[in-house]
Amino acid sequence: YDAYQAFTPSQIVQQSRERFPEPDVLLFLDIAPEAAMQRIRNTRQNFESFETLEQLRRIDRAYRSILPPATVYLPANQSPEQVLATAVWAIEKSRRTLKS
Question: Is the separation of the CB atoms in 41 and 51 below 8 Å?
Fold first, then answer.
């Protein structure tokens, strides 16, 4: 996160588009900043500089401002098995669409 603080989210997207092809499917692990902060607190004693609630909110807003409409939002508050199942479903759906 620190490396990209000098750029706006749209500048990061533009730079990425110049260097990399568009993905066939984009998966976004969707978790509320408050829930992410709670997970951090429950699993660690030391936090990184970007691991404050306000910073997590800012990062969340930035991601949401640049994600394309076809993004698949994976509810990260579900079990790992449910998240994986949703991800596999989205990837398989994308593959079927590309074949037709």
Answer: no
Domain ranges of the chain: 2-99
Q: What is the pTM of this model?
A: 0.77
Task: Quote the percentage of the chain above a pLDDT of 90.
Answer: 47
Which tokens go with 88?
Answer: 């596999």
Burial zone of 74 (CB within 10 Å; 0-12 exposed, 13-18 middle, 19+ buried): buried
pLDDT value at residue 100: 72
26: nearest Cα among 91, 97, 96, 92? 91
Q: Contact, 82 vs 29, CB < 8 A? A: no
Cα–Cα distances in angstroms (integers) from residue 53 to residues 13, 22, 62, 78, in the given order: 24, 31, 14, 21
